Predict the 3D structure of the following.
Amino acid sequence: MPDGAVIGWDLGGAHLKAARLDASGRVLDVVQVACPLWQGMHHFHSAVDLASRAMGSAPRHAVTMTGEMVDLFANRREGVSSLVAAISERLADRVVHFYAGERGFLDAAAAIRDPAAVASANWMATAALVAARQPSAFLIDIGSTTTDLIPVHAGRVQARGSDDASRLVAGELVYTGVVRTPLMALVQRVPFAGQWTPLMAEYFATTADVYRLLQRLPEDADQHPAADGGEKTVEASARRLARMLGRDFDVAMLADWQQLAGWLAQVQLRRLGHTVAALWSREQLPGDAPVVAAGVGRFLAADLAARQGRRCVDFGSLVPCGPGVNGRVSDCAPAVAVAWLARDGTA
């Protein structure tokens, strides 16, 4: 087994995540940095530098990504090539491998030659770790923007989709999360003040406002500016929610806005629940197969597990962790998983 520490990287379009594992495979530290990559590569360089300072040095690095799809790049090939080159330059004096799903790990040159194998493969890294540690399970990774729904059975990942397009069709990738999803993407109308009211098709509020109003939003989950660039308080979230209805905050009580937030949260949960039920019926998992919950929105995964009558296992419990990092391990599951897979000898 390879000696020395390994740092895993998940290069996202909105966040960059990194995890440090020691020689025994214990997770020592995890960090998530806001990285609005669509605004320019300078955000990426700053985020890598910040995460590198937090993680320290290591002889080996394992990288996965989803940031290649942001509209900074003309296509995914350009995105993969740009991110591979940029992280390789930043880690020039270290061994760097890029995760390519079932192909394992590639060096930089091979990753650039085969961008389709590397693009948006972070979900597979998480699922592969789950399959190694929990042979039958249903992985639910709910992040700030997207949800991954992946059945695992008999130690194998049972995904039918491989890239974003096929995963969307299969229901294994759902573009909904607990922070960055615009409310107009959830529903077209809402019940308020005794009648159905259409939502404005404007970026006035997001799901972060919903879960902040419900006091369910985890600390540090919301790292980007609010829709209006304003404060991240309960009242400010209510004000943004009211704007979605063409109203001002003070036309109703705070409790009314919280009630509406609860209704919107249930809409999101039902949408995910319908997809989970379909996938679960597709695979016929054993009765004792748990839900493995990951991501900053894993509190919703626990709700979905309860609806299925399944126990819920936190992703962070599947790997040994240093003091105080368990929760962050679950927040940044792909970064942890890709480091674990590299250390385990796949690289």
